[in-house]
TrEMBL record:
GO terms for molecular function: carbohydrate binding; isomerase activity. It comes from the Bacteria. This is Galactose mutarotase. Pfam families: Aldose_epim. One of its GO terms (biological process) is carbohydrate metabolic process.
Length: 299
């Protein structure tokens, strides 16, 4: 039986509430309006803590999705990742998956009000630096106001090295009481990055115009880049609407909708899948912290 302290935020302007668990990686476990739950619960918090099986709104850090090998190079230095060590988990193909902070207990709440919480993590501990040797402080500020949940993430280097920005989030969204076949998904113009059978980008790309279509039984596990600041992804069904806005700092996205599951992941990413190995990512330089922000509005 899990016994974690939870933080539940209340919207001063509506009946919307949001719940986060600092001791389990600052994962968002609930976004509700009365009895209606808008986050996909999947296998639940227990499976997330025990096996890293994502649910709700997890942070994927310091890389989102997969890497194409168990090592990467930064400024001539090679970092080797070992499955089961330093928080590294691998998928069925042996690819390092979703970083090292799944359910990580080291978050400390530094500020809290009725509708906001700020938590910080010192990424300077040896077990974390073994997989990502860039000392920094990682901060999340979560606010719920006017039916909008905003998550702001800041990376502040604490040593001479710049910190690669390849992280992301995986909000699993659902519209309660309406089968997913009746959901309409609207996406902005962006560039599609096809992947191979193991989920790694092939290196090809194709422009994708803004579109709006019924989700039906379409399965997604697709990556995109060239997502502009302020881009909005919208999910609509019956009298419910969810807008996911990539406000700033997220030029890439992943859409994930497994067949037979009434949810979709709309994933803001600081860089496309496998960027930690391929390069092309932004960095947070010493003395110049970087902040990224996205929001989820339920109406």
């Amino acid at each position: 039986m899990l016994d974690f302290e939870t933080v539940t935020l209340t919207d001063p302007a509506s009946s919307l509430t949001a719940t986060f668990v600092p001791g389990a990686g600052m994962v968002g476990t609930s976004l509700t309006d009365g009895a209606d739950e808008f986050l996909g619960q999947r296998r639940g918090l227990e499976a997330y803590v025990a096996r890293g099986k994502t649910m709700g709104i997890p942070i994927l850090y310091p890389w989102a999705n997969r890497l194409s090998a168990n090592h990467y190079e930064v400024d001539g230095a090679v970092v080797t990742l070992t499955s089961g060590a330093g928080g590294v988990r691998t998928d069925d193909h042996g690819a390092p998956m979703h970083g090292v902070l799944a359910a990580y207990p080291g978050w400390l709440v530094t500020d809290r009000t009725a509708n906001s919480v700020t938590a910080a993590l010192d990424f300077g501990k040896p077990q974390l630096l073994a997989s990502f040797p860039f000392p920094h402080v990682l901060t999340q500020r979560v606010t719920l106001e006017n039916r909008r949940l905003t998550i702001e993430t800041t990376v502040r280097p604490t040593a001479a090295a710049s910190v690669p920005l390849c992280f992301g989030y995986h909000p699993y969204l659902t519209i309660p009481g309406v089968p997913r076949g009746q959901w309409t998904l609207t996406t902005p113009a962006m560039r599609h990055l096809p992947v191979d059978a193991t989920g790694i980008p092939t290196g090809t790309h194709e422009q994708r115009s803004a579109s709006s279509e019924q989700l039906g039984d379409t399965a997604y596990d697709d990556g995109f880049d060239q997502v502009p600041d302020g881009a909005v992804f919208t999910l609509v069904a019956a009298d419910r609407r969810i807008d996911v806005t990539f406000e700033t700092g997220y030029p890439a996205a992943q859409l994930f909708a497994p067949p037979g599951d009434d949810l979709i992941g709309i994933e803001p990413m600081a860089a496309p899948t496998d960027s930690l190995r391929r390069g092309g990512y932004r960095t947070a330089a010493p003395g110049k912290p970087e902040t990224a922000r996205f929001s989820i509005t339920v109406s």
